[in-house]
Target: L-asparaginase
Amino acid sequence: MNTPTSPQIAPGAQALPRVAVLATGGTIAGSAPDAANTAGYQAGVIGVAQLLAAVPGLDALAQIHAEQVASVDSKDMSFALWSALVQRVNELLAGDDIDAVVITHGTDTLEETAYFLHLTVKSRKPVILTAAMRPASALSADGPLNLLNAVALAASGQAAGQGVLVAFNNRIHCARDVTKISTYAVDAFQSPEIGALGWVQDGRVEFQRRALRPHTVDASFNADVQWPQVEIVTSYAGVSRIAVDALVSAGVRGIVVAGTGNGSIHITLQQALAEVAARGVAVVRASRVGSGHVMHNGAAKDDALGFVSAGTLNPYKARVLLMLALAAGTNEKAALQRVFDTY
Model:
C-alpha cells in the first residue's frame, strides 16, 4: 500500500465530514493516447491525487483523506486484494477521524467487490464504490462526476446504515442488487429486478427505499479466512460434464451453476452435479438470465439432488456468498439454503 496523501483542507472546513478515498485502479484511473479513444486505454495508471484534482468542489463537500490501495485493472481482482481492502476499510471506519469511505474501482468486477464488502465490512458508516466507463483521458470522461457524486453521497449522512452502496451515473445502488449491463455505455450499472435505491445530483441525495437483507455489522462473515475454491459452470445446449469432473478432481469445494431460465440445468450437467453434491461438494443453482430469481424447487428437485438455490443473486455474487459461507464452516445443504435465503 502506498503512502497516504491528504489534499489541503480549505480554511473553515473543519466541520465537514471526513471521507477517505481509497483508489484501486480501473478505467476511472485509465489513460489512452488521445482523447477520442475510449477503448484502447491502460487501466489504473493515474494516481489518486490526480483523480481528486480533476474534481472541482470536493473540498466543499468533505475533508478528503486519500490512499492508493492498488493500481489494477479490475478484471484481475484477487482474493488477496479483497482481503487487504476490507481490512483497510474496517481500520479506517473503526476510528473517530473518518466518517465514510469512497472506493474507486474498475467496472468489470465492481459488483463482486461491492457485495463482498457488503457482507464483510463491520461498520454502519457509509461505504461507497464508484467507477467509470471512460478513461480519465477521454473527451467526455464520466469518472469525475461519478466521484463527485460518490463523495456527496458519503458526506450526506443519509448512506449510514445502508450497507455498501454503488454511486454511478447519478443513481445509488445496493451492492447486493447492482450489476453491469453494458460493455460501453456510461449508464452501465443497473439493479435489474427491483431498481436503484435512490439518486444523487448536484449535491442532493434522495433515497426511495432501503435494503432489507442483513449486511455489514449484521452479517456473520469474516474476511480473514482461508478462501475455499468455488467455481462457476454454465448450462447450455449440448453441454458436457467435462468441466464439473475436472473441477472436482482439482479439489473445488463448491460449484455455482449458471442455469438457463429459472436455474434449469441440462440433464447431462445436472447428473454430474448431483453426483458431486452427494460427495459433499456444495452446488448452488443460479441463472444466466439478467434478472429474476431462482426458485427453490423443494423436495422433488433441489432437496433430492442436493442443490441450493441462489434466489435473486447472479452467479458471480452467489459465488461470493458461497465462498464466505463455506469459509465460515457452513457445509450442510439446508444450512447453506438458509444462508442464501437470508443474505
